[in-house]
Design goal:
Blueprint lengths: L1 H13 L27 H10 L4 E3 L14 H10 L3 H6 L37 E4 L3 H14 L2 E5 L14 E5 L6 E4 L17 E5 L4 H10 L2 E2 L13 H4 L7 H4 L6 E7 L5 E4 L5 H7 L9 E8 L1 E2 L3 E11 L3 H12 L2 H6 L2 E14 L2 E13 L4 H15 L8 E7 L2 H8 L12 E8 H5 L3 H15 L5 E5 L3 H5 L13 E9 L7 H20 L19 H6 L3 H11 L29 H4 L4
Parallel strand pairs: 2-4, 3-4
Antiparallel strand pairs: 1-2, 5-6, 6-10, 7-11, 8-9, 8-10, 12-14, 12-15, 13-14, 13-17, 16-18, 17-18
The structure holds flavin-adenine dinucleotide and 2-acetamido-2-deoxy-beta-D-glucopyranose (8 copies).
C-alpha cells in the first residue's frame, strides 16, 4: 500500500490527468483513466495484488531517481550505470528498450537519463502498474482485472519493440519477464490431437519471458538448435515469433512462426486456451505473424527443435577508399546482384551498408561488411561457387582493407554462442526505423540492383549518411513453406529485408521530432516502397509511423486478421500500436476513433 500512495503522488504532482486526452464526444469510447470514478480503488488494486501473490508494482520511469521530485544521487548513479543494458531494461517495469516509447512528448512528459535533472520526471507512456507475473493464473487475474475496469492493458516481454507496442500511457502492464521455463521433448503431441495422430517430433516449450540467449544456451546443451533471431534479450515467445520472426536459420527451416506447433494463451475472457492445428485454429493462424499484443497473452509457445548441424560461414568486408562514393555505390549494386544466387545456395545472413568512413587498419574506408551462413553444409566448394563470382565482381571497386573468409563450423550452436557473447544488447537510445522487403523478382531484373542502390544512396544523402542493415533471412525454406498463417505473404518472395534507423535526442523539440518522423514516412521509406509498391514491411522492424500499415504488414491477410480480432476480442482489450484493429483507436489506445461503441452505452461510470 505504501507503493500505491507513491503512485498517487506521482499522478497528482506530474500529470494533469483529469483533463481529457482525446475528445470524448458522443460515439467515442474511452477507457477508464486515473481520477475517474471508474478507476479501481486502492482496495481493488490491493485485491489484485493479493490474487497475483504480491507481484503488483506501482511503476515509475526508470530514470526517476535522476529527476525532480525523486532526486536520489546514489540510486540515480546505479540506474544510470545500467541504462544501456537490455537485460536490465527487460526486467524493469518502468523501462522499455527504446526510450522514445517511455516518453510522451505530445503531453510534454519525459524522464530521460541524460536530460537536465530539473526537468521533472513525467510518467510518459510508462505503465502506472505492473503485474510481474510468474504463472498463467497471474496473467488470467490481470487480464480479468483490466477487462472488469476497462483499463488500458500493455503486455511487455523484453520491451524491444521498435514501434512502441510494449508500453502504453495510463496502463496496467503485464510483464512476462519472470516466466523462464524451458522444457524439451523428443515427441511433441499438441493438446487435442487424437492418440492415433503422429506426434510432431522434437520440440521445446518456451515460457513467455525466456530470451533468445537463454533459449539457445539451453538447446546447445542438448546439441540442439532452433529458428530464432540473433540478439541476446529479445523474447522468444512474445512479439518476435508472433510477428513472424526472422532468423539466420530461416533459409534452412523457415520463419520462427512456421515452426510454431502450439501456443498456450490467456484470451480476452481470461480463459487459458491452447491454439494449435486441432483447437482454436483461428487463433493459431493469427498468432503466427499477426503481431504481438493483439490476440491474447501468450503464456508459452512450443516450437520445433533441430540437431545442431555443421555450417559453412563466410564473413566479408569490402572497402572503398574514403570519398569515392560512386565506387562505393557501384560495389553495393554489384553485391546485391548476387544475393539471389547466394540465397538459392542456402545462404542466410546480414550485411551492413554505410558510406560513413570507418577506420580499418589505420585507413579511413567505406565498408560493406557482413556474413552468410550455409546451414547443414560442410562442402566449401559449393559455397565458393556462389561467393567467388560475388567477390570477383565487387573487387572491381574494392580496395585495401577488403577481406573474405570461408570457414567450416562444426556446430551452428557454437557459432551462435560466440555471436551472442555477453548477456545483453546495447539499447537505451532513441530510434525509429524505416524498412522494406525486397523481392527475388526485383533483384533479378537487370536494373533492379541499380535502382535499389540509387534509392539507398538517395535516402542516405537526405539524412546525412544513414547506414542500412540488409537481412538475407528469407528464400529457401521461407519461400517454400506450405504453412498457412497470418505471416505477411510477401515474406515468401523476399530476398533481403532492408532496415535503417533515424534518431533524435532528449532535447529535440517536439516539432522537430515530428519533422523527422514525417520525413521518414513521406520521403525516405517512400523511396524504397516506390521500387515495389506491392511488397511490404516487416511489422517488427518497420517504421513506427508506417502509412497504410495494414497492407504493408499483412497484405491480403489483413481482412481475415481483422475479422478474427473482432471475434476474439470485440471490446479491444488487447490493442497494440500499429497492430491489427489499432486503427479503431487513437495512437495511445485510450479512446476509440470514429466508431459507435457498444461499450459506451453500458459503461460503468
Ligand atoms: C537488438 C534487436 C535485435 C533484433 N533481432 C531480430 C531478429 O533477429 N529477428 C527478428 O525477427 N526480429 C528481431 N528484432 C525485432 C523483434 O522481433 C521485435 O523487437 C519484437 O517486438 C520483440 O519482441 P519481444 O516480445 O521481445 O518485445 P516486446 O517489446 O516486449 O513485445 C513486442 C510486442 O509483443 C507483445 N508481446 C510480448 N509478449 C507477449 C506475450 N507473451 N503475449 C502476447 N503479446 C506479447 C507486446 O505487447 C508487443 O506488442 C530485433 C530487435 C532488436 C531491438
Ligand atoms: C503488492 O504486495 C507486495 C507484497 O505484499 C508489496 O511489496 C507491494 O508493494 C504491493 N504492491 C502495491 C502496488 O501495493
Ligand atoms: C555518482 O556518480 C558521480 C560520477 O560518477 C560521482 O561523482 C558521485 O559521487 C556519485 N554519487 C553517489 C551518491 O554515488
Ligand atoms: C514542458 O515541461 C517543461 C518542464 O516542466 C517546461 O519547462 C516547458 O515549458 C514545457 N513545455 C511545454 C511546451 O509545455
Ligand atoms: C553433443 O555433442 C558432443 C560432440 O559431438 C558430444 O560429445 C556430446 O555427448 C553431445 N551431447 C549430448 C547431450 O548429446
Ligand atoms: C542435413 O542434410 C542431410 C543431407 O542432405 C539430410 O539428410 C539431413 O536431414 C539434414 N539435416 C537436417 C536437420 O535438416
Ligand atoms: C573511384 O574508384 C573507381 C573504381 O575503383 C576508380 O576507377 C576511380 O578512379 C576512383 N575515383 C576516384 C576519384 O578516386
Ligand atoms: C590489418 O592488418 C593486419 C596486420 O598488418 C593484417 O593481418 C590484416 O589482414 C589487415 N586487415 C585487413 C582487413 O586488411
Ligand atoms: C540534439 O538535437 C538538437 C536538434 O534537435 C541539436 O541542436 C543538438 O545539438 C543535439 N544535441 C546533442 C547532444 O547531440
Amino acid at each position: 500500500m505504501v507503493a500505491l500512495c507513491k503512485i498517487s503522488i506521482v499522478l497528482g504532482a506530474l500529470a494533469p490527468l483529469s483533463q481529457g486526452l482525446a475528445t470524448e464526444s458522443q460515439g467515442h469510447r474511452c477507457r477508464c483513466r486515473p481520477h475517474r470514478p471508474c478507476w479501481p480503488s486502492h482496495d481493488k488494486w490491493h485485491a489484485l495484488n493479493s490474487s497475483i501473490d504480491g507481484n503488483l508494482a506501482a511503476v515509475l520511469p526508470v530514470a526517476h531517481a535522476c529527476k525532480e521530485p525523486f532526486l536520489d544521487a546514489s540510486a540515480c548513479n546505479a540506474s544510470t550505470a545500467k541504462s544501456t543494458d537490455s537485460a536490465w531494461r527487460a526486467a524493469q517495469p518502468g523501462a522499455v528498450q527504446w526510450t522514445n516509447w517511455e516518453a510522451w512528448p505530445e503531453r510534454n512528459q519525459t524522464c530521460y537519463f541524460d536530460s537536465s535533472k530539473n526537468i521533472p520526471c513525467g510518467q510518459g507512456r510508462v505503465s502506472l502498474f505492473s503485474a510481474l507475473v510468474d504463472k498463467a493464473e497471474h496473467i488470467q487475474a490481470a487480464v480479468r482485472f483490466a477487462a472488469t475496469y476497462d483499463l488500458r492493458l500493455a503486455i511487455k516481454n523484453s520491451g524491444h519493440c521498435f514501434l512502441g507496442r510494449s508500453t502504453a500511457p495510463e496502463s496496467l502492464q503485464i510483464s512476462t519477464n519472470k516466466m523462464k521455463s524451458i522444457a524439451f521433448t523428443d515427441q511433441f503431441r499438441p493438446a487435442g490431437a487424437s492418440p492415433r495422430q503422429l506426434g510432431k517430433g522434437p520440440a521445446v516449450t518456451i515460457g513467455a519471458g525466456v530470451n533468445l540467449k537463454e533459449l539457445y544456451a539451453a538447446a546447445a546443451k542438448l546439441n540442439l538448435t532452433l529458428v530464432a533471431g540473433l540478439a541476446h534479450t529479445l523474447g522468444a515467445a512474445g512479439g518476435y515469433i508472433q510477428g513472424g520472426g526472422h532468423s539466420p536459420l530461416g533459409n534452412w527451416k523457415g520463419m520462427a512462426s512456421d515452426n510454431a506447433l502450439e501456443f498456450t494463451v490467456v484470451n480476452a475472457k481470461g480463459e487459458l486456451v491452447p491454439a494449435n492445428d486441432y483447437q482454436n485454429q483461428d487463433l493459431f493462424w493469427a498468432l503466427r505473424g499477426g503481431g504481438g499484443g493483439t490476440f491474447g497473452v501468450v503464456v508459452s509457445v512450443t516450437v520445433r527443435t533441430f540437431p545442431s548441424v555443421p555450417a559453412v560461414f563466410v564473413d566479408f568486408g569490402f572497402a572503398v577508399p574514403q570519398g569515392n562514393l560512386s565506387a562505393y555505390w557501384d560495389l553495393t549494386r554489384d553485391f546485391h546482384s548476387h544475393l539471389v544466387a547466394i540465397s538459392d545456395a542456402g545462404g542466410c545472413g546480414y550485411y551492413s551498408v554505410s558510406p560513413q568512413p570507418q577506420d580499418t587498419n589505420g585507413t579511413e574506408v567505406m565498408l560493406l561488411y557482413g556474413g552468410f551462413l550455409f546451414l547443414n553444409e560442410t562442402q566449401t566448394d559449393k559455397v565458393h561457387k556462389v561467393i567467388d563470382p560475388l567477390t570477383a565482381d565487387v573487387r572491381r571497386n574494392a580496395g585495401p582493407g577488403s577481406f573474405w573468409n570461408v570457414n567450416i563450423l562444426p556446430q551452428i550452436s557454437e557459432w551462435i554462442d560466440m555471436a551472442l557473447k555477453g548477456d545483453a544488447d546495447t539499447t537505451g537510445g532513441i530510434v525509429i526505423l524505416g524498412s522494406r522487403m525486397i523481392s527475388r523478382d526485383f533483384l533479378t531484373k537487370s536494373d533492379g540492383p541499380k535502382r535499389l542502390t540509387d534509392a539507398l544512396n538517395s535516402i542516405s544523402e537526405s539524412a546525412g549518411a544513414v547506414g542500412f542493415t540488409g537481412h538475407v533471412v528469407a528464400g529457401g525454406a521461407v519461400a517454400k513453406s506450405a504453412v498457412d498463417s497470418a505471416l505477411n505473404p510477401v515474406w515468401r518472395r523476399t530476398i533481403t529485408h532492408i532496415v535503417f534507423g533515424v534518431d533524435w535526442n532528449s532535447t529535440t523539440p517536439l516539432a522537430e521530432q515530428k519533422e523527422i518522423q514525417d520525413r521518414l514516412a513521406n520521403v525516405q521509406v517512400e523511396k524504397l516502397r516506390a521500387l515495389e509498391p506491392d511488397m511490404g514491411a516487416y511489422l517488427n522492424e518497420a517504421n513506427a509511423y508506417e502509412k497504410d500499415f495494414q497492407t504493408s504488414f499483412w497484405g491480403d491477410n489483413y481482412k481475415r486478421l481483422y475479422e478474427i480480432k473482432q471475434k476474439l476480442d470485440p471490446e479491444g482489450l488487447f490493442i497494440a500500436r500499429k497492430g491489427v484493429g489499432s486503427e479503431d483507436w487513437d495512437d495511445a489506445g485510450l479512446c476509440t476513433v470514429g466508431k459507435e461503441s457498444r461499450r459506451m452505452l453500458q459503461a460503468p461510470s
